[in-house]
Records
---
Amino acid sequence: MATESSNPSPPQNAKVINHVILISVDGLRPELLQAPLIEKHPSMARLLRGPHTFEARTDPDSTVTLPNHVGMVTGRLFAGPLGHNWLGNSDPPKPGAGGTINEMHGEYVASIFDVASDRGVATAVIATKTKFILLDQSYDETNGAMDIVGTDDGRDKIDAFITCKESDQVATETLKFITHSAVKGERSLSFLHFAETDGAGHAQAWDLADETEYRKACVRVDTAIGKLLSGIDSDATLCGHVAIVLTSDHGGGVPPRSHTDPKAPINFTIPFLVWLGVDQAPSDLYAANATMRTLPNAAENPRAEEAKPIRNADAGNLVLMMLGLPAIPNSTVNAAQDLIFVPSTGTTVR
Ligand SMILES: [Zn+2]
């Protein structure tokens, strides 16, 4: 059913989106993307040239890494019978010993990788923490669901699962993957994770002063994103056809060298950026979604039954929609794919 919430007309200068990259910068506080600190991050500044907000929210019950990333790729929050229920935040046990999302939840939890892979879209996870093996284990040739949509693309839902040590390598591997997909005439969905920012925060606190480890790590991540954007710009088959959604699993700073308190605003407040493959005027993602999402009070991360802020878990069904794909079965966040990503004009970013 078409409603006012749908995304009926693409931006005027947009081309067909063939590749979508979902980027999570681990522990990225929104201040890094705002003046004056954004001056040090020219590549992330470019991704601000589209609809975005600095007032997105994490899961209401968790501000740690794995539960929030599982939320992004499954379109579910942590808690409740419809939640993904994955609370662990270290390397998971082996499959069969509790090491898949499906085992934890009690039944199959579909993901963005299911929807994309089953429809012939190439999929990748390129991450910088070993615990992301959870995704590979949950959606591999043994534990992934049967493909009952069209051509059988198999049970393995993640075509390329790559663990990197450094941010630069994430950019290199991503370019390789997308280029390879484009050469084969395939569309693609990539999920990228940059851990350096989080590592620096744990080492020396989420200190926003000049030249801290956290600030230096942000610059390294920005440089890697710059390499990715340059690679896309210089390839005629990719330029204008690759969209990027960038968000984070959590902020950080409560306690000072961590981010475990889900009630702390500096932990649960995160950025959420939508870049549609071309640089556009910056616009407010909440203004575009005035009837569908509620800008929360700065001190609050409302529970699902209380209000609907823009969350990192909105990203899963958003990236599928950007590829023209349906929502993740049984997902609960952005399940109607009603998060509007077409910029509204004349709005001020909040
Ligand atoms: Zn951390």
---
Amino acid sequence: MKALRCVELGPPEKLQISEVPDPEIIPGHVLIDNKAGSVNFPDVLMIQGLYQFQPELPFTPGGESAGIISAVGDGVENLKVGDRVFAMTGIGAFAEKIVVPEAAAVKIPYSMNFETAAALPMTYGTSLYALKQRGMLKEGETLLVLGAAGGVGLATVELGKAMGANVIAAASTQEKIDLCIEHGADQGFIYPVGKLDRAQQKELSSKIKELTNGAGPNVVYDPVGGSYSEPCLRSIAWEGRYLVIGFAAGADAIPKMPLNLTLLKGCQIVGVFWGAWVGMFPDDNKKNFEELFELHSEGKINPEVSDSFCLDDGSKAIAHLKDRKAKGKVIIKI
Ligand SMILES: NC(=O)c1ccc[n+]([C@@H]2O[C@H](COP(=O)([O-])OP(=O)(O)OC[C@H]3O[C@@H](n4cnc5c(N)ncnc54)[C@H](OP(=O)(O)O)[C@@H]3O)[C@@H](O)[C@H]2O)c1
């Protein structure tokens, strides 16, 4: 079969398309003929050797895909040949076929196409867990989303709206803000690109205060980090929840927050690690996926697939995300 391979660590241009042996079915697993995979920020980090979990070289990147089951191993109970599923695997998705444990594959509704299914699990899974289980977002509260037109960002805009929040989108270009408004954000504003100096940080805090009539957002969703985080925490509302999602601005600039702010604001800084939670509480995650399917069937969420690439151009798909060009999700059609 054909697969996108990482044979040496480095930028996406180093990835190669290769012929590799088909994976063999083993007990408790299913074989999926992939139809689409989707790119996430961890793919960008992993191929460069910068992710918290590093597979041995050579490996096939790709954390999630959707397709049709073509074989089932002994002991598989709830899935059968012909089922349409998405799968979360961490690696291996950017290939024509993948073998995954039964528990990693989830049947998708007939109304959902493979591109949408591949785009859904990590971004919407993370964001629903973040807003519901970690952020306790309530109807009528104000939610500020940084990097709001990115994968997890846009999912959060839609879910925030579906949960009845007043959603403020923050992103680096007007085009990205327009997309967030199309997906339900109530307001949006542009922040500067690059490391913010003190004056720019103060301006960012003031802008957030201005848009919330001085009260500040109740929940801040931050997948960006860097110099953006502290001014956002400074603007948070009394008893606000600051959700730490990721560090797209760079692992070398992980923010260190002054703890006096949590005291002065009566607020919480809340870590969100969806993958670890899924491993510990798979049944709760299953319920969240059911809720996501319901929201999709009601038209309340609709993953934005802004760019799709064929498998031969898989390296370009990853470069697109790395270069901050992605809006919503980048898909690899297989
Ligand atoms: N905690 C969890 O469980 C969990 C789960 C999934 C993902 N994540 C993390 O969430 C973050 C976002 O993931 P994603 O898949 O949504 O990525 P994405 O689609 O690339 O979105 C990230 C956004 O961050 C902004 N950004 C700011 N500085 C950037 C920079 N130097 N390079 C690239 N983007 C930059 C960009 O928006 P602007 O151009 O508008 O600033 C971009 O749209 C990553 O750090 C990822 O590891 C965490």
---
Amino acid sequence: MGVYHITYVTELKEICLYFDGECQFSCHGCITHWHPEDCHLEESASLVKHQGINIDKVIAYLRRLSFKRVIFLGKEPTQDMDFLPLAKILKEKFSTYNIFLTNGWRYINDKALDEVCVSIKAITPQVFKDFTGMDKPERVLENFRRYVTTHHIKVRAESVLIPNYIDEREIENIACFISRVNKTIPYRIDAYIPFDNDRFPRPTTDEMNKVKAIAQKYLENVYVLHNGVKVRYPVTRIY
Ligand code: SF4
């Protein structure tokens, strides 16, 4: 539990808080497990997690910085008991714009939360089950719809392209689902980052561009993230 990693982008006045809570899923190649630190760090990222720190220590680190946006991510933030109290403190004391990344398994509604990015892992039941270990992808889809109808929370979605697994057909189905909710919802497709001796490869730039074009048939705001995309601003470690 608690925050194990903090990064900062001066130009954006943006903080990322990485949580070390539980997660209901057990995704193949879980990025928080295999690549626990911010992959955009200027220095090389550690493969080992730091010890989690409590809310007071997080605030002590942040006080020295000028910031207005905070992103809550890492191992599922909604499962970490420090997540919401910390979001409330940051909203009340620092007037932050709070964004959280979630696997969508839980719906959380609080005035301290301004934006959610729901990671839609898969939509086909057997693919979802195989990838996350859980049944009922419709639970994530239903929570996604609930977030969209929660007026004070802005919604984005994301998925990970894994060649031969969560493939372009699965991403097309996800994009189609999102478009039926609202075709202007921003959708980001991340390139899978394999671990050592992984059976799935990293997608090529061509594969990423192809899947982007497929999603754009349904959605107006599609982005891709892969190692060919340049980092715009330096990312520094705070903890
Ligand atoms: S939902 Fe995220 S944190 Fe949880 S297992 Fe999947 S990739 Fe890891």
---
Amino acid sequence: MDVGTDIVDIERIAKLIDRHGKGFCYRFFTDLECQYCFSKPQPAQHFAGRFAIKESIIKILGAQTFKEIEVVNREDGKPILNLYGTAKKVAEKLGYTNISISISHAQKQAVAIAVAL
Ligand SMILES: CC(C)(COP(=O)(O)OP(=O)(O)OC[C@H]1O[C@@H](n2cnc3c(N)ncnc32)[C@H](O)[C@@H]1OP(=O)(O)O)[C@@H](O)C(=O)NCCC(=O)NCCS
């Protein structure tokens, strides 16, 4: 078992989106993540939560490519983790069969936690 957590400043992400446009988003986030976040009234808070999840997973698995770590939401909104490529292989090598995640955002920051079993 292992756990990872991270907290991200939403304003920092909003500035990156302002400066670099959608290029920033598509560099670090999958198409599904970008679609989800841009469908929301305040995309930066959802990108920040996903950024925090990616960093949380990196704390568990070690350095990984951001786009190999994906958050999708179930119909009821609950976030689910998908791993691809090397990130998936590393998780398997470490013996993790289930990684649960949770995200929360406030006005200024987004926080995430990942628990790997
Ligand atoms: C899940 C819930 C507690 C979120 O609380 P909140 O204070 O509004 O929002 P937070 O900032 O703490 O969390 C938002 C994150 O919660 C997560 N989330 C959403 N629905 C969830 C659920 N059913 N289970 C677990 N996590 C959920 C998402 O990851 C979301 O972030 P994202 O959209 O960027 O992925 C709230 O929406 C809820 O109670 N939902 C279930 C019941 C419901 O839909 N009620 C509606 C009217 S009664």
